[in-house]
Amino acid sequence: MSMVQWQREADIVVIGSGATGMPAAIVAREAGASVIVVEAEADIGGHAITSGGNVPLGGGTSAQKKYGIEDSPDLLFKDLTDWSVVEPNGFPDYRYNDREIVRAFADWSAPTFEWLLAHGVAFADKSPDQRGGGAVGNSVPREMHAVPLDWPLVQTGAPAEPEQRRSFSTGNGLMRPLEAAARKAGVAILLEHRMTALHREGGRCGRVTGIAARHRGEALNIRAHKAVIVATGGSSGNINFRRMFDPRLTEEYCGLAGMPWSDQDGSGELAAMEIGASLWGLYNHVGEFGATITKPGRIGTQYGYVNLHWQPGSKIFSKVRATGLRVADWQDVILVNMLGKRFYDETGKQFTANNYNAIKPYVHGHYLNAANIDYAPNNWLNAAMAGFGDGHNGGGPIWAIFDANAVAREKWVPKPPFVDVDAGFFFEAGTIEELAAKIQMKYQRRPMLPESLAATVALYNNFVVDGVDSDFGKPKPLYQIAKPPFYAAWATPVVHDTRAGLRINAKCQVIDLSGAVIPGLYCGGESAGGFSEHGLARATCQGFIAGKNAVAEKVP
Ligand SMILES: Cc1cc2nc3c(=O)[nH]c(=O)nc-3n(C[C@H](O)[C@H](O)[C@H](O)COP(=O)(O)OP(=O)(O)OC[C@H]3O[C@@H](n4cnc5c(N)ncnc54)[C@H](O)[C@@H]3O)c2cc1C
Known about the structure:
The protein has helices at about 20-30, 45-50, 60-65, 75-80, 100-120, 170-185, 240, 265-275, 285, 315-320, 370, 380-385, 405-410, 430-440, 450-465, 535-550, and strands spanning about 10-15, 35-40, 55, 145, 190, 195-200, 210-215, 220-230, 280, 295, 300, 325, 335, 400-405, 425-430, 485-490, 495, 500, 510, 515-525. The protein is an alpha+beta fold and about 550 residues long. About 55% of the residues are buried. Helix 1 (about 20-30) runs parallel beside helix 6, helix 1 packs parallel to helix 16 (about 535-550) and helix 14 (about 430-440) crosses helix 15. The radius of gyration is 24 Å and the shape is globular. The strands form six sheets. Strands 1, 2, 5, 6, 7, 8, 19 and 20 form an eight-stranded mixed sheet that branches. The protein is about 25% helix and about 15% strand. Bound molecules: flavin-adenine dinucleotide. Flavin-adenine dinucleotide (FAD) binds next to helix 2, strand 6, helix 8 and helix 16.
């Protein structure tokens, strides 16, 4: 008998209120179960509400049918398990996908889409496309776009412009309707409740019976009569956890996409591993494809993910501190490492991911698919994370260096709230030497020598005169860095998706290291492994699957 003192109880306890947790909770509640969702943060939504709302559910959705696109579960399954598809840098998107997990996704993908529609999620009324997803298959377009209607956006605090409310793709349009549906159905949502552990009878051998959580410093235990669903959204924000996959991902990669709305602290994975769970599909998290780690799109802020534009009206702006400067043209800056040295062509790109029409002609499983991709290594990220031979892992801070002319060309305003001066993510000075001397912040573990940055800028200015970057082959360097004031803006790579996590089966049940089901424990989304696809489709579909199966549990 368990000696745990339970303060609350429900049939199903869902941990996390994002793209996985919310569908799981609603499905279970509507099937008759009592459901508690615990959410660590002060508002629902997780990364899903901050997301671009591009939802690649396919397999024959009503939207695909409406626009004459023929898709089927079999075609979706074939696409997402095609061994022959590689990216321009040679990395495969689908080769290491677990067939059982992808088959379940393929079968439940279209039903999940129809279910979202039935629960108030509105999508832009236009043909599915390939915009915004990642690793979603090469045969047909599948991407649909959730629209915000009148809901206020978490990024700005205000609704979208009236003319954009039925066209602008955003995760606000996914998560606010689902929150409303959950509340209407009677799901209990406990905000600021952080799961700290899972309870399992016999420690590592019996059923999962509930969770331990903390609420404003108070500990409590919540009994789950049927099942617990881990929907905690991944581990990319946990430095030690993510370094199991890639030792380079040290602490300076502090601007996780989706933060500071919610973190990906690996708490779900760690709690499940404590009671015996296995991890799965680990290649998918190190393969150089997709958005596991990205080039920043905004500089001078800790949170520089290209597609997340926090603005002062956001209720979390005091945590974000700066909007960042959106870089329209990487010709306008040079990028240097902690020592003030350039390391790669600034216009270099991040990794890509396979979507519709990426390989032409595409024939499933054909040996020529790899040959029909033009080899292009896309190594900006690898160069940025390489370090400089001093025995440390990780590349250290990357700084964008530019001058007053670049500010004018880009129409930037280089002061707060656009840049984060107080926390050390932005510096300004009258000379290049003074600028280098000013760059001091917690991740700058060695000073940038003024003469080093001055030499880098002088050499680059010569490249501009010659029209040739003889160090890194930047296509025709265009602008000298010459007119004061001079600026240094944080431009360090941004950690994003988690694509490896707990081992699950087709029902989203969590599996232990001996291959056995852990009774009463489910998982989906970024905390689950075995599936290389980015984002919302995988998460919503697995939430749907987990909710359905959790409610059907026969508890002895
Ligand atoms: C800026 C941005 C843009 C994106 N755009 C797209 C896009 O356009 N299309 C797409 O397909 N994907 C996109 N994604 C990815 C997509 O948002 C995520 O893959 C998806 O939200 C993952 O769902 P999830 O349920 O696993 O995690 P989340 O949606 O992050 O939800 C996890 C929730 O669990 C909570 N939690 C974590 N630990 C605990 C704990 N211990 N106790 C209680 N609660 C906890 C978190 O606070 C969070 O609310 C984007 C992501 C970001 C950050």
